Every structure is written in C-alpha cells, then in structure tokens.
Amino acid sequence: MELPAVSAAQMREVDRAMVEEFHIELVQMMENAGRNLADLALQHFGPRPTVVLAGPGGNGGGGLVAARHLANRGVEVSVVLSRPESVLAPVTAHQLDIVRRMGIAVADQPPTADLVIDALIGYSLEGDPVGRAAELIEWANGQPAPVLSLDTPSGLDVSTGQAATPCVRASATMTLVLPKVGLLAAPRLVGELFVADISVPPVLLGRLGIAVGPLFAHGTIVAVSRSAS
Questions:
Q1: Which neighbouring-strand residues pair with 80?
Q2: N- or C-end of the chain: fewer Cβ atoms within 10 A?
Q3: CA gap 98, 190 in Å, rounded
Q4: What phi-psi label fits residue 100: left (phi over 0), alpha (psi between -120 and 50 degrees) or beta?
Q5: E strand or H helix at 223, and its extent?
Q6: pLDDT tens digits, residue range 77-128?
C-alpha cells in the first residue's frame, strides 16, 4: 500500500494533539504500539527467543510492552536497557516495573537470541548515538539474528533518511501512524516496512492536511509497498 509520508515535526504535533486535544494518553499509545510490535514479531518471524533493546523514552517503553506481550504468548524473551533505570521516562519506568513483576529477565548484557527487537531510539534522534546505546546498536548489527526496529532503525533520521554513526541495519521496521519521509529514503537500513495503528483519529491527520481514510480497516498493521520507497 502506498501512503503519504510525514516528518518528525509532524509526528511531534500528532503526539501533542493526541494528549492535549484528544486525551489519548501516552501509555495508551505505547500499549497499542507494543502489542502491534509483538504481533508483527510473531507473524513475520515466528516464535523464537527474543532480546528487546530498550531505550529510556517512549520507544523503549513500546519495546517493553512488546516484551511482555511476547512473554504472555510463550516466547522466551529478555530485556536489555541502554540507560540506568533511574533516568527512564516515567511511563517507560512504569512498563519496566510490569516487566519485572512478570519475571521477565532484565539483563546487563544482551544474550544470544534468534530475534533482536530494536527499541533504543525513536524519531527524536539528535546527533550520533553514544555510550551504551551506540554499543547496543553495534552489537545488534553484529548478530546473525534478524533485527525488528520499532518506529525507525535506531540512528536513522526519520526526516532526512541520513544514517548516524552507528545506525541499526534492520531486517524489518514497524513505524507508527504513517511512514516517515526518511524511512522511505533508506530501504537498505529499514528493511521491510510496516505501519501500525496507535489509535490516531483520521480527523487529527486531516488537520495537518493528510488524508488517509480508514487505513487500518482490515487490520492494525499494514505493509508499505516498495513502490512507495
């Protein structure tokens, strides 16, 4: 399916309006994103031991949601954080608390796995990844296992398609709401591209001059055609 693409600035406006005008809270959007990510992981790669690399912000929170949905479905899953728990955003810390209460392993070092979920850095990337995030990106790129990225491969600028150093090379990417301009410009880093529903009302997109209709009428995950990239 060919779809209109949006910039990081447009996504920031969507996120703002969702909370401030529609009263759809971040934790609700995060739940939708993570559940869809777990669905895609199972549908596209099958049940296999999975490691979730989670950053401190909303992207990491979505990865933590995916971890618990995968665990609920019998998948062996573990989590590795890129930042200390003390600096996690409140809603991400909330998701981590749930993960811990479920008994999901939170490891210091990423274990060997058959699928890597990249939930390190979302569309708010500024500059090159550094520190632990950079180390985990390099680790993911060195694995034989496929990598499934949430929203964008960590290190990719979603507005320009420029790759930072380092940048995840994903086998597949599940972006949210609509494709980002930069994702369509970097197919070799993005891999197969999917877009998932997080309950953004079409009327909100219409305010931004984006007409998409009932995009998710037949399911909450839609494959983006290669002709669009």
A1: 53, 107
A2: N
A3: 30
A4: alpha
A5: strand 221-223
A6: 999 999 999 999 999 999 999 999 999 999 999 999 999 999 999 988 888 9
Residue 201 burial (CB count, 10 A) = 13
pLDDT (0 to 100) of residue 141: 98
Closest to 194 in 3D by CA, of 141, 147, 149: 149
CB 183 within 8 A of CB 8: no
- The two tokens of residue 116 are 């890597």
Residue 228: per-residue pLDDT: 38
* CA–CA dist 94, 68 (Å, integer): 13
Q: Measured at the alpha carbon of residue 131, what is the angle toward residues 139 and 119, in degrees to the nearest 5?
A: 55
163/167 Cα distance (integer angstroms): 6
SS3 84: coil
Domains of the chain: 8-228 (3.40.50.10260)
| Nearest in space to 10 (alpha carbons), one of 163, 190, 174, 204 | 204
The answer to whether 183 and 152 have CB atoms below 8 angstroms apart is yes
Whole-angstrom Cα Rg for the chain: 16
